[in-house]
Specification:
Length: 402
């Protein structure tokens, strides 16, 4: 009996030791670092940028002679996760664009969006004000962190996290980086376009799953390396300003010329209030369709649709305008947002409404680069024009106009 007890005890001990040995291995696997360095991100930016320029993609016509600042702004999600490296593109010392690169391989494809002629935001002022508000609201609180965040895509601001020393509760203070207005920490209503609040784009990006996103990052990395190799073969250094001579060398290269695109000429307007994104999007398309012949003001459109200040409009309001004023057929989609439908609409010269949570824009074109699909967006928020990747993208709905 004693012998059997010793044997059982030994077996249990061995089993425990094996389990203990396995635990670090499992933990190590779970904690694998998938973060992207700023240096890696910089390579992706330069490779994709020279590819767009050499392929004469829409929007990049004036980017010859441009160069990328290797020191990006780090943008975070509202959940504290590092989200993007935002690189600034300059030409003759003037800011002509920004390119957002995902800061973690689990977020999928590397290039998330590319903005043209963006208005510089006030990062330092926004961060300072968010701290001041936090100190005023919670005078005995502990400031945990202050970072730049994408608080309601594409809106950027500062977020200060403060901990109440009495209760231990943490509070977030948001300040918009353009207006320097405080933004309330409340969820955005997805279908109330013009609603002010915050939402996590990181959660949206992860909807495809970590494993699929890792595959997409590798695909993007391979594409970047193919462009780098093509440039090296032609004696082109892609990490310096893009010259006309280098563009000529690369034009026609198979690795570079993997771009198809199309767009229609829709004017860009800036919304006049925080809740005028739908009226402004309608205004843009009024001018495109030339209906009515005299483009109405944003306030006229808002009042026509019985808008109630300070609230935004909805899909129903868009449908009403399309039917009553344009005498066209609106088709609302909140699922099955396929790339092929973007191609069909734009190829038939039909720009359409594209929505993200709490916000409405106009899609005026597309670009397909090496299997990555981008929508060409006119955004009334700040009057921005940009390409936005559809893989892991923020879009939640569309209204086609036929």
């Amino acid at each position: 009996m004693i012998k059997n007890k010793i044997g059982m005890g030994t077996l249990i001990l061995v089993t425990l030791l094996v389990c203990m040995a396995l635990i670090p291995a499992v933990s190590s696997q779970e904690e694998k670092d998938y973060s992207v360095t700023a240096e890696e991100a910089f390579k992706h930016v330069n490779a994709h940028m020279i590819s767009f320029i050499a392929a004469d993609a829409p929007g990049f016509e004036n980017w010859i002679g441009a160069s990328v600042d290797p020191k990006p702004v780090e943008l975070y999600d509202i959940n504290g996760q590092k989200l993007f490296y935002q690189f600034s593109v300059y030409k003759e010392k003037k800011l002509i664009g920004t390119i957002d690169v995902c800061a973690d391989k689990t977020q999928g494809t590397s290039i998330y969006d590319i903005k043209f002629d963006p208005k510089p935001y006030k990062a330092a002022e926004a961060m300072k004000k968010s701290k001041e508000i936090a100190n005023n609201k919670y005078p005995i609180g502990e400031l945990k962190s202050t970072v730049m965040v994408v608080y309601s895509y594409p809106k950027v601001g500062a977020m200060t996290v403060v901990k109440d020393k009495t209760t231990g509760d943490e509070h977030r203070i948001f300040v918009d980086a353009y207006t320097l207005d405080e933004v309330q920490d409340k969820p955005v209503t997805e279908t109330d376009f013009g609603d002010l609040g915050v939402w996590s784009i990181y959660e949206t990006i992860l909807e495809n799953g970590v494993e699929e996103n890792l595959k997409e990052w590798q695909k993007s990395d391979n594409f970047t390396k193919s462009i780098e190799q093509a440039a090296t073969n032609k004696g082109v250094n892609i990490n310096v300003a893009v010259t006309e001579e280098n563009v000529k060398k690369l034009s026609g290269d198979a690795a570079i010329m993997t771009i198809t695109s199309a767009y229609v000429s829709v004017p860009i307007y800036t919304q006049e209030t925080t809740y005028y994104c739908v009226p402004t999007s309608i205004q843009m398309l009024c001018e495109y369709f030339n209906i009515p012949t005299s483009t109405p003001s944003q306030t006229y459109i808002y009042n026509y649709l019985d808008g109630q200040s300070p609230y935004g409009l909805s899909y129903d309001d868009i449908e009403e305008w399309v039917e009553d004023v344009w005498d066209k057929t609106p088709t609302v989609r909140t699922t099955a947002l396929y790339n092929i439908d973007v191609v069909t609409e734009i190829d038939n010269e039909r720009p359409f409404f594209s929505t993200v949570s709490g916000h409405c824009r106009v899609c005026r074109g597309y670009l397909n680069q090496g299997g990555y699909f981008y929508m060409y967006i006119n955004d009334p928020e700040g009057g921005n024009v940009y390409y936005e990747c559809t893989y892991g993208g923020p879009e939640v709905g569309r209204v086609y106009v036929r």
